[in-house]
Write a structure and sequence with these properties.
Low-confidence stretches: none
Family: Belongs to the dGTPase family. Type 2 subfamily.
Strand content: under 5%
Number of strands: 0
Order of helices and strands: HHHHHHHHHHHHHHHHHH
Mean pLDDT: 94
Structural class: mainly alpha
CATH architecture of the largest domain: Orthogonal Bundle
Number of domains: 3
CATH superfamily of the largest domain: Hypothetical protein af1432
CATH class of the largest domain: Mainly Alpha
Shape: globular
Radius of gyration: 22 Å
Organism: Hyphomonas hirschiana VP5
Protein name: Deoxyguanosinetriphosphate triphosphohydrolase-like protein
Pfam families: HD, HD_assoc
Largest sheet: none
Distance between the termini: 56 Å
CATH topology of the largest domain: Hypothetical protein af1432
GO molecular function, one term: dGTPase activity
């Protein structure tokens, strides 16, 4: 058994679940949470939800599911090295994208625009809504009844939600609809495992977007060579393996870059542990600054990479065309479902027809946020293609 850091979250000291259940004879509370996430409907749907490309554009691009698995792998590796709870880190990595609607960030932007008169849409808040309300698999409660530590990490993995300038009333409605929300200590940072999962997400999508962008022909290896750190690694691989084609160069360089980012995070976190000296996960939450992080030396190269990806990938004309189509599909669907709730499938139609205004809009939003890319396109075809009779 790996040595556990004093500031790790201890499953033996879990604050429990909001609905009391008998403990498992074979799994820790966090292992049980992980299993509930994996068996959820929302998790399965991630296989056809994309981040940049639409699901039908190719089988080799990342989906939300493959991305979540990659984040989980990185999270476990880091958590093991730091002596944290690997199962909690993995659980938070697997659940961090549950609330994303179809069509990536374009889908979120459009759904937020549709919901603007009704307090908007936020994918992080939707994740909480899914695991506490929308997943219905148990006879005694709605949601998955996850532990306090998992819910706290899911809600705050990007940092505190409230502060002097951000009262609870300013949070998205999908957060505020969770009655025990304030019990999650919203003004503090999340525990160390949640911080690991959040930065593992950064490591995964930064490096794997390099891979997907090259595979899609949006940019080339040569385009990356002027970037700090990233260019050095690609150049090093080319010099070491002079006969490799650019596809194999990319695989090797991305592998090395992930290792570089992980090693930097581990070293920087070790330095922060020595400086801040936390003795428990509760002390980590109360520090007033993140315990887990990258060094200042890596922040500049990260910003340069994000700027490059933003201009050469996320704003590429092909991606812009996909975004435009995705927004029109979701806008059309929202208008029909809101004004003609009888067109929703059961049981959504029955629930929506009983409500009006914001309540009906939220039901429509929940239905649409759960769609996969392919299902949204198919729903649009069924409703707007006059030759489609079913």
């Amino acid at each position: 058994m790996e040595k556990r850091a004093p500031y790790a979250t201890r499953h033996e000291d879990s604050r429990g679940r909001f609905f009391e259940e008998a403990p498992s004879a074979t799994r820790t509370p966090f292992q049980r949470d992980r299993d509930r996430i994996i068996h959820s409907t929302a998790f399965r749907r991630l296989k056809q939800k994309t981040q940049v490309f639409v699901a039908h554009e190719g089988d080799h691009f990342r989906t939300r599911l493959t991305h979540s698995l990659e984040v989980a792998q990185i999270s476990r590796s880091i958590a093991r090295t730091l002596g944290l709870d690997e199962d909690l880190a993995e659980t938070l990595a697997l659940s961090h994208d549950l609330g994303h609607p179809p069509f990536g960030h374009a889908g979120e932007d459009q759904l937020d625009a549709c919901m603007e008169p009704y307090e908007g849409f936020d994918h992080n808040a939707q994740s909480l809504r899914i695991v506490t309300r929308l997943e219905r698999r148990y006879p005694l409660f709605n949601g998955l009844n996850l532990t306090w530590e998992t819910l706290e990490g899911l809600v705050k993995h990007n940092g505190p939600l409230t502060g002097p300038d951000t009262p609870v009333t300013a949070l998205p409605i999908a957060f505020r609809d969770f009655a025990p929300l304030e019990q999650l200590e919203l003004d503090q940072f999340a525990g160390p495992e949640a911080q690991v999962a959040a930065l593992s997400d950064d490591i995964a999508y930064n490096n794997h977007d390099i891979d997907d962008g090259i595979a899609a022909g949006l940019f080339t290896v040569d385009d990356l060579l002027e970037l700090p750190v990233v260019g050095d690694v690609f150049r090093g691989v080319r010099m070491e393996f002079r006969d490799l084609d650019d596809r194999m160069v990319t695989y090797e360089a991305v592998r090395r870059l992930i290792g570089l980012w992980i090693n930097d995070l581990v070293l920087e976190t070790g330095a922060r542990v020595k400086r801040l000296k936390p003795h428990s996960a509760a002390e980590v939450r109360a520090l007033g600054e993140p315990l887990i992080g990258f060094s200042e030396g890596l922040e500049g190269p990260q910003r340069a990479l994000r700027t490059f990806l933003y201009s050469r990938m996320y704003k590429h004309y092909r991606v812009n065309r996909m975004r435009s189509k995705a927004k029109r599909v979701l806008a059309d669907l929202f208008e029909v479902f809101l004004n003609e709730p009888q067109t929703l499938p059961p049981p959504w139609n029955g629930a929506a027809m009983k409500e009006e205004g914001a309540r009906r809009a939220r039901i429509v939003c929940d239905y649409m946020a759960g769609m996969t890319d392919t299902y949204a396109l198919e729903e649009h075809r069924r409703l707007f293609d006059t030759s489609a009779l079913t």
